[in-house]
Amino acid sequence: MGTPEFAVPSLSALLDAGHEVSLVVTRPDRPAGRGRLMTPPPVKTLALQSGLSVLQPEKVREPGFLDALRRARPEAIVVVAYGKILPREVLDLPEKGCLNLHASLLPKFRGASPIAWAVLAGESRTGVCAMRLTEGMDEGPVYLCEETAIGPDETAGELSERLAEIGAGLLVRTLEGLGAGTLVPRAQDHSKASYAPLLVKSDGELDWSEDAASICRRIRAMSPWPGGWTVFAEEGSEGETWQIVRAVEAEGRGEPGIVQAAGREGIVVTAGRGAVRILAVKPAGKRAMPAGALLSGRNLRPGDRFLFRPGCQAARRPAPSPSTR
Known about the structure:
By secondary structure, this protein is an alpha+beta fold. It is 24% helix and 23% strand.
């Protein structure tokens, strides 16, 4: 059971390891792209290419879907970023339970967006855990985990690709251990749990009154979606939304949100503490480009301003504090 690109390496690894995948369950096709064409989930594409049976229920409590699961008589159900909470009827069905691959070091960052929130919190390490699903949100006992460092400039999207591959191998090892009866799950310490809720568009809004390190983390954490975004206001205009694709910390001081310099090496904007050098940007309705390429067609000058709502981050769900490890 899985849906996005993150789940594709896991399905591929199960097939390569010789497991009999009797059924693939994924979310329904959805409209995508500018043409809003109906597009299958990545997991469905791989499943059909591999000659596997696919189900795409709108609701996991549909009687027909539950009957199909029972007919498949699974020894185990593997769940990787499926996107639906499974009812008790499904959790109790397979002999060896429902095995979930979660992209964090549990009990930290339970929830829908663990990779983005780990980057946003300034974690230096994260990982993947194979756990047994229960009715609580990512609260089940853990079989195996594998850690990895988070690169200092790594975006959530880049980290997701790495964790998907790491998780695929971990998943195969977990199934081997379950089959051999050598794995004993360990209960999570619920007192140390933190949560990573589903991202929304406003999570990407940049508050230039924050310190430069926090702004750069948000830009990396919100890539590829919803993107770290801000509003650039030329004199006499209402402003244009820009997605900041790449940025690093820089030297600078002054009023937050003001352009200090603009040239081949990027656009330097002052923050609440320090400054941010914008290296790549995506203006509304245009492709992403290096900041220098943007400047070739736009007269950006020191003193120009990025609009923001001071304190907008404080009104949001706070990111968990960075790890002390």
